Amino acid sequence: MSLRPHVDFHQGTVRLFGLSARFVEKALTDVPLVWDEREDCYRADAMHADAIRQGLEHSLAGRFDWRVGRDAGAAEFRSLAVNDLRQVTLRGDQQQAVKAFEDGGRRGLVVMPTGTGKTVVAIELMIRCQCSTLVVVPVRDLMYQWHAKILEATGIDAGLIGDGVHRVSPISVTTYDSAAIHMPRIGDRFQMIVFDEVHHLAGPWRSDAARMSIAAIRLGLTATLPGDDQRTERLQQLVGPTLYQQSIAEASGKSLADYSVHRIAVRLTDDEQQRYRDYSRQIQTFVYQQREFDPQFKWDDTYALSAATKQEPDRARDAVIAMRAFRLKRQIEEHADAKLRMLEDLFRLHCDESVIVFTGSNVMARKISTRFLVPCLLSHCGKKERRQWLQGFAEGRYRVLVANRVLDEGVDLPEVKTAIVLGGLSSQRQAVQRLGRVLRKGTGGRRAKLYEVVVEDTREVTRSRDRRRNEAYRQKR
Amino acid sequence: MIRSEHSIVEYDFQRMIVRPDRLHRGTDADYLPTAKQMLRIYRDGIGSARQTLHGRIETCLNRLPGCPPRRIAAFCKLLDDQSEYHSDRKAALQLRRQVFDFAADRHPIVEYREGIFDNEMHQVRSELAETVGRPWPEIEADLFSDVLELQRLESFETSLTPAQLLSAYNVAQTQAALYRATRVRVDASDDFKTIVRHAKLAGLMHRIDLVSSAKHPRYRFIFDGPQTALRQSTRYGVRFATLADKLLALKGWHLTAEILGPRKQRFRMELSPADGLTSSLTAPDAFDSSLEAEVDAAWQKTPVDGWIWQRESQLLVRGQSVMTPDFSLYNQQRNLLVYVEVIGFWTPEYLEEKSRRLKEFASVPPTDSRPVETTRWLLIVAKQQERDLRQRFADLQLPIIGFDKHTKPQSWIDAIDE
């Protein structure tokens, strides 16, 4: 072991060897370091690497070895030339976002509605920072989309980590899941990290992607910050404070197209209604019986109860039956015949336009695809297939594209002015993201339309009502 | 292995312990004929879609009282793991392209012809069938045949018996309970080398303590990962699960896992050979080399009085590096422990690595802070290589014995005392 203190990167953490407790307490006060007796070293999350380096430079004035990572000495990972091949001028709001990020110490969140050019802001910052950068995105489609945009803007053929590819380059794009898996090995390679749709980072597993990276420059992009304070706080710890925020209402009609939301109620057939009522009654009876037994019982407890076959076999059996009824009830809502009939009417109404249909399940998406013989974009589609449908849709060859959750976020769709939501979550985020898909301001300034088809007298009405709580959904009628 | 969403555990909040779901011979006897049925469903199900097979398994298990959905899903996963499904993505994509391109100019396809909308569904389907050259029901069935749940079973060639399937379920649930583990402790009196090797392969960090005498060594291993020093992390859970499966093939161990339970409370899970779980692996080989086997046989034939001869019974630890000498010799009267290393291969890489490790470990006191003067080393090499290896390891200044079938173990003791 060297007598000089040294710091290295170890599986998503940094280890500090050869430093006394007194020195650490004095010089690295703000860094959460922990003594690790397994290796006689101090240890911290890699995300504190920059603070550690600054603290050591200040106190030890170069009398330490910085061995962070295999590429610590490789010049191309410290700084690199990122050319600017773009032919665009940033809009006012985009310039404001760039400035806010730079003024805010290059660590923080930029909140802008979908379609307002968050990618443009990020690429501008990448060009300004001129350093190794990792872009983290939620889905594979976005990974390829970012790859194409980086290539177009800078001429750099970025590395890809995910979807069966593992090509790490100084500029790379990856998905959240791949980042969380691979960060213990690649977390020391990038000076800058961009989290697209940063709200995905808040979960405990995925947040490792931020913790295990040494990147000092951290940008988080999103259209919607998490609803609860705890998650927002976690994002701020991992990435930085909110440095710029623009609401969807502010952007409407300016950077985004003007839009209207139409709700259409459809009814179940007599047969569907009968089955729906039967299942509802089964569930109600089950909950009633459980409350007789335990007044605190909630429907949410059913899943856990279903597994208690050893302790409470009778209740567990009832829970299993109730859950099956619940699943069948959801299927009736989701696959109601009337939805397909309404969809046909809406296709007739918008027969000359490009329409995107959002469903609540992959099964429904395939059902629509098979019924109307239109492409559907699902998570199983490979890169080639996705590109094929998206391209055909952009060229107007295919009038309709059906998707479940693949297109909820980020993937660019050119000038779609009509979207139909046939089901989905009660989440406001999903609602706003789906709205964002049809709000890109194109030429002609045509008004965008979003239809929401809801089955009357079912839980779909409640979910739709929950979605409407969002400001963007509420104000537009 | 099954997925974490298939895991069923019982949390005992009084004793703060976790019990993974297990099927027992007595109370769950009904599962044995059901397991037979399940295997038959898969064996007879060649050509059926995955979702159809899963539906049949569900029906089969639903007949048993109180079978939770997670158990059904776990069995489906275990059976799928033994299966090969057909997925011709290229052909399915080709069919989709044909179908959607054909229909593109006919949008919207309406149920009944009306006004300007004259592309009637049935008509379009029959024209499509003619163009593709296959009947519509076949097109409909194959349009998404590459989607996971619609893939068809191609082969199910497992030798699993119904009892083995149930045993695999018990092992899988035990492993799944470990996905939520933050740290694992293994107390072992045997097979240390294999335990350490599997932990290394799983990418785990360790702390090792000797918990009993040199005569009957017993070690305590604590396995976790770098992040463990910073927070309670379940990040290494899958690695613990992998390690547990390997342990099942060994003897003389007891595992205690710290499990993160509801509301981040800490629970405990115990596992040992007494649980009766069986591994898919076989027990480790007896010896690493034939020379090692011959050396052992020579000692067994003419042992030296006062000395205890044990195989791989000592662990030498230096930080995250571990070395297990091939044998140890212990003399209780003299309180002398001798680490015996047999050099049984002669490739340059092997010898270089051996030399490096001996340099690292022969110069430091062992884990249990035993005084240096109570430990010695002895290197045993094949007689025909003796001269070369004496030169190669000369700088280590350790006694070296050339071994052939005439060498008596007393000469080894003499070499130590020289």
From TrEMBL, chain A:
Record carries keyword Glycoprotein: no
Helicase ATP-binding domain mapped to chain residues: 99-243
SUPFAM superfamilies documented for this protein: P-loop containing nucleoside triphosphate hydrolases
Domain of life: Bacteria
Keyword match Hydrolase: yes
A GO term, aspect molecular function: helicase activity
Leader sequence residues: none
Assigned keywords, A-Z: ATP-binding, Helicase, Hydrolase, Nucleotide-binding
InterPro entries with a match to the protein in the record: ATP-dep_DNA_Helicase (IPR050615), Helicase/UvrB_N (IPR006935), Helicase_ATP-bd (IPR014001), Helicase_C-like (IPR001650), P-loop_NTPase (IPR027417)
Residue ranges of domain Helicase C-terminal in the record: 342-477
Alphabetized PANTHER family for the sequence: GENERAL TRANSCRIPTION AND DNA REPAIR FACTOR IIH HELICASE SUBUNIT XPB (PTHR11274:SF0), RAD25/XP-B DNA REPAIR HELICASE (PTHR11274)
Full protein name: Excinuclease ABC subunit B
Natural source organism: Stieleria maiorica
High-level lineage: Bacteria, Pseudomonadati, Planctomycetota, Planctomycetia, Pirellulales
Automatic annotation (TrEMBL), chain B:
Source organism, top-level taxon: Bacteria
InterPro entries: Bax1
Name of the protein this chain belongs to: DUF790 family protein
